[in-house]
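dumping the sequnces here before i forget
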Amino acid sequence: MFRGFLVKTISFVGYTVQYGCIAHCAFEYVGEFVSCSGPSMEPTITNHDVVFSERVSRNLCRIQKGDIVIAKSPFDPKMNICKRVMGLEGDKVCTSGPSDIFKTHTYVPRGHVWLEGDNLRNSTDSRSYGPIPYALIRGRVCLKVMRIQSHFLTYILPQRPNHKLFEFELLPFYVVFFQEFFFSSIKQNK
Amino acid sequence: MKTGRMFRGFFVKTISFVGYTVQYGCIAHCAFEYIGEFVSCSGPSMEPTITNHDVVFSERVSRHLCRIQKGDIVIAKSPFDPKMNICKRVIGLEGDKVCTSGPSDVFKTHTYVPRGHVWLEGDNLRNSTDSRSYGPVPYALIRGRVCLKRKKNGLTGRTSSKPVWTTSPKMKCYHAGRPTFSLEIILNHTQTLSYSSCIRSLK
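..and the predicted 3d for all of it:
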């Protein structure tokens, strides 16, 4: 009886390890849901929003200017940051604030990206800690999940801030595409 | 009818083969990700500790538990090319004061390693592009810590089948011998001369 119990335990552990590895690889190479906190990406992503970040673009090096990315924080290896890519390697970016008289520019070095939050007044980003290496980027945010009344609405995030959004409603059995005027009415109700 | 069944059987076998491949591929990937992997190093920047085309084993456990210490040899992603890896020694952790000027400079300059970063330098200081040129590297770029190196045997080869352990007075250097190849366990130490003397004494 003890032997049977031991065999069952070992097979259970084996299955757990097996499916855990498969799930880990799915999160690593396909995408994962992330809960964002902080005000640095308002109004695009607000506090406690759940977003879906896909890993395929990062692994194929297809991150482009205007993408919202999740990256490891350069100051804390256990924290992640969610910012928008404002400059790729070789681009010229403006480092001075909007209120400065003399504008200063800098070039993004090779293998680095320049990140900025959408909420420029309340965001710690590359304007304070400089460009970050591309290898710190974990994934590209492509969807945002929001609950409105009893349904879950999924948004495809725009490439540039305050751009037009397309939304679709995620229901168990079908997907509905909304027009822009319908979406703008929901935006006013928020 | 018979060909239909054959085709269906072949299709089922293909799907199950792909399923098993994906399954064991994921398990192997997680083993490389969380335990360790063999890496082939190239370049002269870590001589004499690690020479060109040396095979080393880098373990990932220290990195995930944030146990990388000063003096460890680490494999990290290059800050200038996300597809390349670099192999250097950790000279300073966050908050440490490191010397940025060369040995020939008259005025020594120092800098403090910022939070969440490490200062990497190669052992071959004259021929190494490291933090002295591109600054401190974020800790999150570190992939693993090098702990074993495959030691190349001479032309005669080793014939002993028992493991051989030797220690030197300054530092411990363990050497295990096998008929075909041997491994050298690289421990945490900052003096490169001790390493080279240990390697010489084992040959």
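Chain B touches chain A through 24 residues (CB under 8 Å).
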